[in-house]
Amino acid sequence: MAAALLDAPLAPLAPSSVPNDETAQGTPGGLVAEVQGSLEADPAHVRLTVDELPAERLLVTDGPHLRATDAGRALLDTVGAETAPFTARIRGGTPAEDLTAVGRVLALVTERADAILAALTA
Prior knowledge:
Blueprint: H1 2-7, H2 21-24, H3 28-39, H4 43-52, E1 59-62, E2 65-68, H5 70-91, H6 96-121
Antiparallel strand pairs: 1-2
């Protein structure tokens, strides 16, 4: 299941949605919502994948929260290192303030699209 989610086409991730120790320490439901919002994936599918991560020793439960294991952090570091050259090429030469503006615009467009979708499916 985890491989299926990783093979799905990805929408751009907002910087706040990139998994890190802070998001991994959230509740399973919070992590599912965060991933689902970033990938526009089926929440049930995301939940199944998140539920598999402890068995793969990438996350551990800590009371009601999830915490990245050393292996989970290492995987995030590897993914970050492997995608960094592409990110640098995409963002190369773009001033930081322009990237910030783009992030705000994309967040606003996403918020509006989500609201319209919610109204249509209610």
